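TL;DR need structure tokens for one chain.
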Amino acid sequence: MPQAVQQTLPVGRIDVPNAVRGASTGFSILLIGGFLAPMLTLVSVWAAGAWLAVVAVVAFAVAARRSTRAGIPALHGIFAALLAYALVLPLLLPFEQGRDLGQIAQTVLAAVIVGALTGTLAARRGLPATA
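>> reply
TL;DR here they are.
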């Protein structure tokens, strides 16, 4: 099969290699953004909270964007975004604020919503899986 045709065929419901690559990038964004948040508390606590929310949305979107080859792009996006959060969660759990179940639930919900939307939109736009 020609390589161009092979790259456009779906690989399964979730394109696992690209989901793991995306989750790794999303994890890096969450980690770096989390390290910068304490510096923003010097400006204001609100600014640090807003920063963390924006970082999470960006990280989940970046994690989910490689969904072109997935059979179900929304599921691929959800998987990649949740995997990015699952990678950073063990680093948060030792701290009291990191164990807040409400915060964890809201972040999981954000990962599901952003991952599904980004996965679907990226597949519709035909963004390259290797981008």
